[in-house]
Design a protein that fits this description.
Blueprint (H helix, E strand, L loop, with lengths): L8 H17 L4 H4 L3 H18 L8 H14 L8 H19 L5 H20 L8 H23 L6 H4 L1 H24 L4 H22 L3 H16 L8 H4 L1 H11 L3 H14 L2 H12 L12 H26 L1
Helix pairs in contact: 1-3, 3-4, 4-5, 5-6, 6-7, 7-9, 9-10, 11-13, 11-16, 13-14, 13-16, 14-15, 15-16
Length: 333
Amino acid sequence: MERKIDVGTFITYPLLMGVVYLLSGYSLTEAYVKPFLLSMEAFLGALFAGAVMEGFEETKRVSGPVKGLGVVLFTYLLPEEVLPFSLHDPLAFLALGVWVASLAPKLPLRASFVVRGVGVFTALYALSTVEQLALFADAFIYAGIAVLVAYTAVTLEHEGIIPGHFVERNLVAIALVAGTVGLYLDVRPYAKENFPELVFYVDWGLLALAVILAALALYANFSKENLENYLVGEWRKHESSVQIRADEEFETAKKAIEDFVVRKKKAPLLTFLTLYGGRVMGREAVLELIEPIAEYGEEPISPFTPGWLKRRHEKAMLEKRVKLVEEALRKLE
């Protein structure tokens, strides 16, 4: 088992845990530190465990979730004199929901959908129980149920039980619609009872809100610039595995290969393969060489697909393009 653990890890975290424990018993600081003792020790313990796991290749993948668990434990173990009971449970469940949802990208694709749905539902349910947000409770509940059901449906889509990928492509829109319906059911009765003259404006205001939320989802869910930066980073991980012959003509192919792998531009790479392949193989062989890349295509991703699913999809498609390039270069050898 290969180890790459910073020695400072074994000093820093245990030292901090010891300092917290000592301060909790010191007369000048006891009143401020002791209420946080258990939650702080659990938080630092989780960070320590995550840092140690990060040093092993076999456990590095789960180091992040272990560290995140520290936040959940810190919140859950806070005493009532620090955090009022009305906020303690909602905050603890909110932290738990966010933590569970964050596990999804690290899990196998099929399992990740339900885990993400459970996490988002838990977080939204927690918000619905906050007394200060009682007016919007239905909005959180409706959105949470919609997300949970939608992610379950996405799982069924990937299993082939439900044909197509309609739910996956429109998951954000489904959550927005459900949340807006819940918000309408919350706010309209309140406005009708207390401000009847404003009901008309509430109706149109919530309709405008639904339009604005949809527009924001279109604009901010996952911008083109962010997507390209992400794909460039993924390409750098694979670049060394693509064996490019060390001659001048193949050097000019590097830009064409990156344009195809990162930006999905086929023309420069097809031009190179056609010109170079024409010198070393016959016409039929050249057609066979360029056919997989010329016919490469993929279904457009909906702007209402969650960002983490977009990244996962784009990473899989990038790896497919890398394999196409590797196969084409092998045929030229």
